[in-house]
Design a protein that fits this description.
The longest helix is centred in the middle third of the chain and has 16 residues, at about 165-180. Strand 4 and strand 5 (about 65) form a beta hairpin. About 35% of the residues are buried. About 35% of the residues lie in helices and about 30% in strands. It has ten helices and 14 strands. Helix 3 packs across helix 4 (about 110-120) and helix 8 (about 215-225) packs across helix 10 (about 290-305). The two termini are about 40 Å apart. The chain has helices at about 40-50, 70-75, 95-105, 110-120, 135-145, 165-180, 195-200, 215-225, 265-275, 290-305, and strands at about 5-15, 15-25, 30-35, 55-60, 65, 80, 155-160, 185-190, 200-205, 210-215, 225-230, 250-255, 255-260, 280-290. By secondary structure, it is of the alpha/beta class. The strands form three sheets. Strands 6-7-8-3-9-10 form a six-stranded mixed sheet, with helices on both faces. It folds into two domains: about 5-215, Rossmann fold (3-Layer(aba) Sandwich), CATH 3.40.50; about 225-290, YebC, transcriptional regulation domain (Alpha-Beta Plaits).
Amino acid sequence: MATLIASHLTRRFDSRLAVEDVSFNLVPGEIFALLGPNGAGKTTTLRMLAGLIDPSSGDVRIDNEAMSRRAAPRLRGRIGFLTEAPGLWDRLTVGQNLLVYARLHGLANPARTVDDVLELFDIRTRRDERAAQLSKGLKQRVALARTLLHKPEIVLLDEPTSGLDPESARDVRELILRLRDERRAVLLSTHNLDEVQRIANRVAVLRTRLVALDTPSALRARLFGARVLVTLAQPAKGFANMLGPAFNDVRATDRALSIGVDDVATRAPAIVRALVHGGADVVSVTAEEAPLEHVYLRLLDKEKA
């Protein structure tokens, strides 16, 4: 499977700087989430990665081969790119749309391949419907099927669950996880932070340039620190002081204690021992994690400051 490396990507449109000095790698078996507000340069970055537009400076490499104008047509065959707009031919049927792309990719048995993806995306009954007649959600399903027709090693997804009902969005998430398990390299650009929190291995926040890049847990720890959340059977306020000077960041709310620690795994047992010794009935102990939305907004606020 392929590794994609973006090195110092910069893209200008006349006087407007859309993307500035962006570097990261995308490796097999990973879901990499690219986040950012509207106009942050996400789609421009995806188009450079897919070889659809050239960077003003910097380069994209797949397994150490540069995405040059000469190499791009061949390297694009290793990439599947779902654009934000489905981009189907309205006058063609679902089957015809997929068959055209199967032939463009030079697949050995295009008709069989189309049958397979129609089955995979549960759209067999829509084969003979014109694309113009489909709902937004069904168009998205067909566009996803088209993206994966040629079994690409690198999959770039721009808002893949946009317009989908909850059941269809769940199916797409399961598909993305399956791509990861098949050792594909998956880049997901989305505004759906709940989706990212469920499936992403690493997160990059883009605002023309990269604001942050790390695992979700590392970003949380950097911005909010590590915390242990202890739920008690009794009101928690009376137990906050018994943790002593070793734990000086303790917050009590109703029947829960939130304790700041340097490391959750090593400090949680001592917290439980102290509380039980003091007569507390401990119901649960978990690592307290700030929602990814809080992490994302804090990073953007720090960038503005």
